[in-house]
Request: fold
Amino acid sequence: MKKFLFGKRMWLMLLATVLVFGGLFGMQWYGQQMMNQAMDNMPRQTVTITAAAAEQVQWQPSVDAVGTLAPINGAQLAVEVPGIIDRVNFDNGATVAAGDVILELSAAPDRAELAVLQAAQALAESELRRAESLLRERNISESELDRRASELDQARARVAAQSARIEQKMLRAPFAGRLGIRRLNVGDYVLAGDPIVELQALDQLYLNFTLPDHFIPELAPGMALQARVQALGPDIFTGTLNAIAPGVDPDTRNIALQAIVANPNEVLRPGMFARVSLALGQPRDQIVVPATAISYRPYGNSVYVLAELDGQATVRQRFVELGPARGDMIAVTSGLKAGELVATSGLLKLDGGVPVRVDNASPPASSLQPEPENR
Reply:
């Protein structure tokens, strides 16, 4: 009898346990079903975005590089002989023409010696004329006339040599250009080869840069290029490819290139850093959108194209293939047509079929030549 009662109690406890836990699991399942139903029936929140139309434009294929400006004609001017500076004939930063005397060393003893030699030359000329007259009267021999002619030649040579020594004490501009800041003053003693002042020709400059060697088949002297210098803002400077190095650097596999860039206002200076855009081939039609319209994912890049569903603007995700980028714009080679509207902001909140509202009051930047603020 006791065993029967014990077994009955066990079954009652098991039954009660099953009922309690079954009720709990049933309530949880019912709650999840009601929640899912509520979520499915809940209206999707409208997302505010900006949008832009895909445009068809002509882009000139080009390759970008960075380079350094260098002078076509530039030199550190120095005197050939030692001496004391007697006169400075320029202002710092002045423009000079080829042949202008920039600086003179003291040459008073040399000029005095030149005067003596010029007097000797004048005497030799007078004696030669007298000898020629005597030879016509047959009062001297021809050998005497030859001796007097030789003496005159020697006198002229000594004058020319002394004039050259005086000329060495004058520093002349070897080419037209702009002078820098002088390093010495009147009264200073200088040695031969001491730098006096820098001279740069600024009307045209070299632009030296490199490109990977796989561009070699597309390169040729005379190709047009554009250069921009960050310090000068959006100004564009044009030039032509001037020289291509005959060999490739074995360490970087780059080839050295040199262009000539016009500098009519002399705002470019040697040593400046420049961004180069070298045109390659013929212009091509491209479908372009702002770069902010691209959703980058490991499984593929996509855009959100605006569509209309039941009178409500929505978006549809579409995978695309991308081409070159310029500034804030990027080319789409497939997956998009000109004129289609794509979302350009708020992409993280978007999904296929999400209702949207377009507000272009503050659109993202979409410039081909952006100028970020330097803070």
About this structure: The first helix runs from residue 2 to 41. The mean pLDDT is 83.
